[in-house]
Amino acid sequence: MAKDVKSHYNAITDGWRIIFGENFHLGYFKTREENLDQATTNLIDILAEKGEISSSSKILDIGCGIGEPAFYLHEKYQCDITGITISERGAELAQEANQSKGNPDKIRFEVADILGDFLPQERFDIIWIMEVSHLIKDKEKLFERSFEFLKDQGKLLLCDMIAVKEFTAFDVLKRGKEIATMERVFGKAKTERLESYQQNLENAGFSDIKTLDVSKNIYPTMQYWRENINRHRTEISASMSDEQIQDFLKACDILENFYNEKFLGYGMVTALKS
Predict the structure, then answer these.
(1) For residue 89, what pLDDT is reported?
(2) How distant, in Å, are the alpha carbons of 77, 131, 237 from that of 134?
(3) Which of 68, 116, 185, 248 has a CA positioned 20 to 30 A from the CA of residue 237?
(4) CB–CB of 145/116 below 8 Å?
């Protein structure tokens, strides 16, 4: 993965804990009455239900953030989890939390790049990819490596922002400042349509590929991010500059607009190594 993505996430991790909560991903809102913490937990639950996870499952969490989905999955299923991230700060926080929770034998975190230096000593029942694939340009290699690291009959479970329609050259010219703001806040992304995910997974050898667009359930997340910034701005300022905070607020507006205009959406993908 690109070095600029690594440095980006090292820099924003502490501020994002306040904006996002402990789960560094969007929420799945079953109703508008749910809060952000419940919605981000919903997203983990819905994706996990597609994987038939049990206490004997061995999971590789690619792009594990600060470890909260891994902790939640272990607590719910008593499964074994290896989390990898290219962010040293994210891995440090995840390891500290793991020690305090007393899970070092069943959960482990390491700084590693799925496209580069990561060479596990075992194969996994589940590959878990939560909101990191949009930052990986070479999705073909991502899925080839995922296929390699899965056991036979293992499953890939993925959720992420997706492209609903492609930006034309005119769109890029017209929306260039907005796209630049999004990249400063969230990192340089390569969003793709669900059809592209399916084709890349097929090319990697996967079968029984299923995709689902859940954009409408994700949409309310941005409003909660704004509210968290307004409520905790002083605390956030300890790790993010005023310019970074303003950029984040602008990015929330832009992300909502891109959703409304059907440029961006949110999808879930499952695939089987048969």
Answers:
(1) 87
(2) 28, 7, 27
(3) 68
(4) no
- 166 φ/ψ sector (left φ>0, alpha ψ -120 to 50, else beta): beta
What per-residue confidence (pLDDT) applies to 105? Answer: 83
- What are the structural domains of the chain? 3-272 (3.40.50.150)
Provide the pLDDT for residue 6: 56
> Residue holding tokens 């017209």?
174
CA dihedral sign of residues 200, 57, 37, 241: negative
- pLDDT computed for residue 13 by the predictor: 77
A 10 A CB-CB count for 242 gives: 10
Residue 218, pLDDT score? 97
Check residue 152 and report its DSSP letter: E
If we measure between CA atoms, which residue out of 117, 119, 9 comes closest to residue 66? 9
Percentages helix, strand, coil for the chain (3-state, rounded to 5) are 50, 20, 30
Secondary structure of 30-60 as H, E, C letters? CCCCCCHHHHHHHHHHHHHHCCCCCCCCEEE
DSSP, residue by residue, 212-243: EE-HHHHTTHHHHHHHHHHHSHHHHTTTS-HH
Q: In whole angstroms, give the CA distance from residue 71 to residue 195.
A: 32
Listed as ranges, residues in the chain with pLDDT below 50 are 1-2
pLDDT at 1: 46
CB 259 within 8 A of CB 215: yes
Q: How far apart are CA 68 and CA 23, in angstroms?
A: 6
Question: Tell me: the pLDDT tens digits for 116-160?
Answer: 989 999 999 999 999 999 999 999 999 999 999 999 999 999 999
pLDDT number for residue 56: 97
The phi, psi pair for 91, rounded to 5°, reads -65, -40
